[in-house]
Design a protein that fits this description.
This protein has about 190 residues and is mainly alpha-helical. The chain is built from nine helices and no strands. The chain is elongated.
């Protein structure tokens, strides 16, 4: 498969037939034929986000592996749009996964709290303060922040998991971060 070949023109009906054939048969080759038609699009998305040809090629293969499972789990109306969003989210998660969970919980969630950039001797104390403040959040804020920062889910995935609207998820994360900041500032000083 060439990452630079021109995509074969498809229509939503053809895509739907191929998706249903894959779902019915479980034959990965059927899904592979559909996927191959969209490789140039997927590769382009990956290259845009990852900025490295080899990383983008690896991501294309990773996306195919995800497709094998996710196509069976989701109702897909327009495969082209759906695979574009899946590819973008995959790349964003790859970029985020490049950071350790500990760095995410301390540096990203609370990048504005100076005491949370501690030396190793204070790291345990800072983590305990963060845990105490997480417990003070509302359930929806705590759940949203946990899924976003610690479990590395995107807004859409959080909405699907929790049943919250996309706007609610964004709001819960934003308000939760603000409440954590206030709590941590109080506990530090």
């Amino acid at each position: 498969m060439s990452f630079f070949s021109k995509p074969v023109k498809t229509n939503d009906t053809d895509d739907e037939v191929q998706l249903n054939n894959y779902r019915d048969s479980g034959d990965v080759a059927v899904l592979g034929k559909l996927f191959e038609q969209y490789v140039p699009l997927i590769y382009g998305v990956c290259l845009k986000y990852l900025k490295d040809e080899e990383d983008a090629k690896d991501a294309v293969m990773g996306i195919f592996e995800e497709l094998i499972i996710k196509v069976k789990q989701h109702e897909i109306k327009q495969f082209r749009s759906w695979v574009y969003v899946l590819s973008r989210n995959y790349c964003l998660m790859k970029l985020r996964a490049g950071k350790r969970v500990e760095e995410i919980s301390l540096d990203e969630v609370m990048e504005f709290i100076p005491f949370l950039h501690p030396e190793e001797s204070n790291r345990e104390e800072a983590m305990k303060a963060l845990e105490r403040c997480m417990e003070k959040l509302t359930t929806v804020q705590r759940q949203s922040i946990d899924l976003f920062y610690l479990k590395e889910k995107c807004y859409k995935e959080i909405a699907e998991i929790t049943g919250f609207t996309l706007n609610d998820v964004k709001s819960y994360i934003q308000n939760g971060k603000r409440n954590l900041k206030i709590c941590l500032e109080r506990s530090s000083g």
